[in-house]
Amino acid sequence: xxxxxxxxxxxxxxxxxxxxxxxxxxxxxxxxxxxxxxxxxxxxxxxxxxxxxxxxxxxxxxxxxxxxxxxxxxxxxxxxxxxxxxxxxxxxxxxxxxxxxxxxxxxxxxxxxxxxxxxxxxxxxxxxxxxxxxx
Amino acid sequence: xxxxxxxxxxxxxxxxxxxxxxxxxxxxxxxxxxxxxxxxxxxxxxxxxxxxxxxxxxxxxxxxxxxxxxxxxxxxxxxxxxxxxxxxxxxxxxxxxxxxxxxxxxxxxxxxxxxxxxxxxxxxxxxxxxxxxxxxxxxxxxxxxxxxx
Lengths: 135, 149
What we know:
The complex is a heterodimer.
Chain A: E1 29-31, E2 38-40, E3 53-55, E4 60-63, H1 68-71, H2 104-110, H3 121-125
Chain B: E1 3-5, E2 26-28, H1 43-46, E3 53-54, H2 65-76, E4 101-103, E5 110-114, E6 121-122, E7 136-138, E8 143-144
Parallel strand pairs in B: 1-2, 2-3, 5-7, 6-8
Antiparallel strand pairs in B: 4-5
């Protein structure tokens, strides 16, 4: 492997979760938290019929599709989502309009109703806790 | 060497990994008895990294597609920089024994991949979609920044 070089211009590229993950139809548990993903998560996530636990916190994911399978998992240890990311991996501060902020309890409820999260909802729904770690 | 043609013989056993290092060569090994054992072909031969062609690269017994997919992940996520990449890309070791890989007991299908906090960066390769039997994928706490494909 030593003769392989990696010269992708990572710094300037907006990363995203690859569509190919949607092909993993048997996937039950997907944990991609604490990475440097950005942008909208692919709709293919919703095609994962077996998905029971999805963890995407501490990235810069601005939107995820509604995943019906996870709606039933209100009391589980799931789920997900995005926040304002891992600053060390980014040069620029993410505008808060593009942030989704959540805690796992809040997400479990909100995923039923929303494609993405509005920070203002935090004040209207009184979530039991908020997790915005790694900011 | 441009061509290693050993087809239609009775070769069996383990294909030497040196065969996979024949720069630019066409390696033709069909119609032997390599498939009679559970041995896989050397990884670099299957991936055709140095050879120009391996005529059994599509043989799923000799060159398991899931091993190829994991190898592509290793490359795209900068495996050489991983904290622990034990046995990854080993020419012969079963990919089920690669660090973080868990297979089903009998079929050698990858059902779990756990590389949390292991120094991954770069991107996820598109061939991750070929790990069709995977049930659990944990790549948390790394620095993966996937390129749009």
